Amino acid sequence: MALLFRALLCPARAPARLLLRAPARLCSAGTQFQYLVVEKKGAKQNVGVIQLNRPKALNALCDGLMNEMNQALDSFEKDPHVGAIVITGSEKAFAAGADIKEMQNRTFQECYRGNFLAHWNRVSLVRKPVIAAVNGYALGGGCELAMMCDIIFAGEKAQFGQPEILLGTIPGAGGTQRLTRAVGKSLAMEMVLTGDRISAQEAKEAGLVSKIYPVEKLLEEAISCGEKIAGNSKLVTAMAKEAVNAAFEMTLTEGNKMEKRLFHATFATDDRKEGMAAFVEKRKANFTDH
Which of 43, 96, 150, 270 suits 69 as a labelling partner, its CA being 20 to 30 A distant? Predict the structure, then answer.
């Protein structure tokens, strides 16, 4: 762990295989990014892909990167053709934590007055489904970023952890809350209090990760999942996501009531009519997102 944080503070030259792309790319809206590679993928170009691109810092999450992340998310959210979003990093690191050098000298007053890290939460507020494709380190803020997504796919060598305790602080972007809901109190408490990491297999067994793939296949599989999601009604998909997320916020009785209301709401959509008609007629549905 000490070596990992030393790498963040004094990063060595990144391996050549990590520098696969130019440091700045244009998204569909023409925005230029310094810390991200933003593209559309899939046979129908309906999956937005956001790749963290700070290889020398193991994709440490600096303020500039998170601001760019929000811009990219906003762009895909507004794009009617995009039905799902994938967030990924490099083979070595999804994101090895927050940028410690950037936050090292902050004071309590600065953090409190500016509501430090509040803008990181944008990922969890996107209405379109977001898939995290995690290879390598997903530690601290990196683990929190992955948990803000709706689905987590992991490469075989992925590692998850909340090591903030080793830096004399605690998780500040939802780590104590989302991790506990995902893996239960005992494992979450152990990880937060010791700073220990868990492997991809352990993460899957604990319920943090849904699937594990070979490193070289991970992004392809995440995009494939995104294509499946994007092929459904975007309107109804948003309703389904809202209903599932409500399960973490409401009692069972309240959640069931909300689910029924959203279920009833689908009967006001053209896509519900088309979906059921296609089933009865034994053909593929042609959803129009209305």
Answer: 43
Q: What positions carry a catalytic annotation?
A: 98, 141, 144, 164
Closest-CA residue to 102 (of 72, 60, 163): 60
Q: Cα–Cα distance between 53 and 60 in angstroms, integer?
A: 9
Would you say 230 and 97 are in contact if contact means Cβ atoms under 8 Å apart?
Answer: no
| Predicted confidence (pLDDT) per residue in 173-197, tens digit | 999 999 999 999 999 999 999 999 9
CA distances to 164, 201, 216 from 92, in Å: 20, 17, 11
- What would the two tokens of residue 7 be? 């790498």
Which residues have C-beta within 8 Å of that of residue 17, sequence separation ≥ 6?
A: 91
Distance between CA atoms of residues 242 and 258, nearest Å: 9
Give the position of tokens 């209090």: 193
Straight-line distance from the first to the last Cα atom of the chain, in angstroms, rounded to the nearest whole number: 50
- State how far the Cα of 12 lies from the Cα of 161, in Å rounded to an integer: 22
